Batch of 2 targets.
Target 1
Amino acid sequence: GIQVEQSPPDLILQEGANSTLRCNFSDSVNNLQWFHQNPWGQLINLFYIPSGTKQNGRLSATTVATERYSLLYISSSQTTDSGVYFCAGNTGNQFYFGTGTSLTVIP
Amino acid sequence: DAGVTQSPTHLIKTRGQQVTLRCSPKSGHDTVSWYQQALGQGPQFIFQYYEEEERQRGNFPDRFSGHQFPNYSSELNVNALLLGDSALYLCASSSFRDGGNTIYFGEGSWLTVV
């Protein structure tokens, strides 16, 4: 199966700081997505970004499909940004997830 | 617009017992996938159902089985529970007609096996 590597595994930020999360895939995937998992376990869709760049408020994402990686940018972080961030991509019907980046934003 | 709903949210079972988890997909979606997420890990694909049939299966034993109903809802059954089955079980729905590009998750079912 496809291996998904996310970095960094853990990140602690002061409120207001910026950060970049990275996701590398061992092989080409389709339909790359970024998710935020809240403390109750639900995975919230952030971006559907198979290629290119998208922005949504303080968050933006860039995927370079030819090099099999994606980046998630968080600007002016807030305490509500805390949680675990996952990227995932699929081949066929199966989505492959990384082990996530655990983000803690402290006031 | 109803999102993906799962039940129950939490349950505790004894080793060797059987459990059934339920999922209703997002309105307009026809495909349901199940994932297992162990503590500190990313979700792992169990299987996917479309048109009431299992389309693809991940690396899980036959103790894990599923079903999809005509209204697109789905069940995940796990027999002969092991301590290692303790995890968050996530249901994801998508639309085959739309190419299954985007998956949406429910809040999950937390299973503890004691």
Target 2
Amino acid sequence: KNEVEQSPQNLTAQEGEFITINCSYSVGISALHWLQQHPGGGIVSLFMLSSGKKKHGRLIATINIQEKHSSLHITASHPRDSAVYICAVQRFQGGSEKLVFGKGTKLTVNP
Amino acid sequence: DTGVSQNPRHKITKRGQNVTFRCDPISEHNRLYWYRQTLGQGPEFLTYFQNEAQLEKSRLLSDRFSAERPKGSFSTLEIQRTEQGDSAMYLCASSHTPRGAIYNEQFFGPGTRLTVL
């Protein structure tokens, strides 16, 4: 079993819909990251969370440390939000802070 | 552009050839990470540097792989005797991580896509 599980794997929505992507993890972490990857490979950091909730524009990320679960919400989705969204956890292990990634959720927003 | 850059962006090679990729991190970032991503999967950790010191290597990094960061700035990743299974996107990320920090924000480059024929 992967240490980081995301659901759903694929998500198709109509423009304007509210989107939720879920991430569960099985290990103790120091932080959880939500990343966006567009076709062509570039990865952009959206959020870094260690507790609670963060909001940036139409994006909201929440984390429940006790339940080992995080969600990424997109309000008023737009076709330009179409991308792969990746959850990654960071564990403090001897100082590397390497990221352990989920497989990603491919989001397609249709006009 | 002051972001992380990687060269080349694409590399096609024949099985058995050696390839080398370069990563230029954000200036003054002390940590540099290499990840590998195969189609439909999330990235996987390969190795990381604290300044010029290579401090951790994944068991994914076979003897055919070697990485360097000679002056604590840019890094190179070399794959010798490439195999078809090496075909992947190779991603570099950098961060400024203060001593004692337990997490950091990593800034990713655009990646180098390797195709081994």
